[in-house]
Amino acid sequence: MKTADLVDAHGEAVKFCNLPFMKLGRRKAFFGPVATVKCFEDNALLKAELEKPGNGRVMVVDGGGSTRVALIGDQIGLLLEKNSWAGIVINGAVRDSAELDDMDVAVFCLAVTPKKSSKDAAGKTGVTIHFGGIEFKPNMFAYADRDGLLVSETSFA
């Protein structure tokens, strides 16, 4: 399911996230219902969510756009793979990029950094978040490929 084809076929029913994401992992495209986490430079809550079954969902993380510290690395990447998450979109940074790129995962992020995050479990899950000019609500549908990221209220799968 190509994002370009979705835009052509569904116009305003799909919204484009206008951030310049880096794309890591062996999965080149993904789609699924959205799950959300809002956290800033702290990944404990995100890790706890990714330890749960993904069931083909897409984790969308508002890390406040911080590129100072990483919200995931190779160990959390293994959780994505093991727990059947379709992919993860991070408005923030990751680390262990070479290892993530070799995994059967899909990671969209803003940057890479070697610095790890704090572990205080600060943040919120299951909330509406905003970045890249669009709104992400739990249970919306995300569609992503090398061309970009779209969201919709409707499933086109």
Automatic annotation (TrEMBL):
Cofactor annotation = a divalent metal cation; Mg(2+)
GO:BP terms for this protein? Answer: regulation of RNA metabolic process
Q: Which SUPFAM superfamilies match?
A: RraA-like
Q: Which UniProt keywords apply?
A: Lyase, Magnesium, Metal-binding
Binding locations of Mg(2+): 96
What reaction gets catalysed by this protein? oxaloacetate + H(+) = pyruvate + CO2; 4-hydroxy-4-methyl-2-oxoglutarate = 2 pyruvate
**UniProt-recorded Gene Ontology molecular function terms:** 4-hydroxy-4-methyl-2-oxoglutarate aldolase activity; metal ion binding; oxaloacetate decarboxylase activity; ribonuclease inhibitor activity
**What functional role does this protein have?**
Catalyzes the aldol cleavage of 4-hydroxy-4-methyl-2-oxoglutarate (HMG) into 2 molecules of pyruvate. Also contains a secondary oxaloacetate (OAA) decarboxylase activity due to the common pyruvate enolate transition state formed following C-C bond cleavage in the retro-aldol and decarboxylation reactions.
Q: Which family does it belong to?
A: Belongs to the class II aldolase/RraA-like family.
Name of the protein this chain belongs to: 4-hydroxy-4-methyl-2-oxoglutarate aldolase
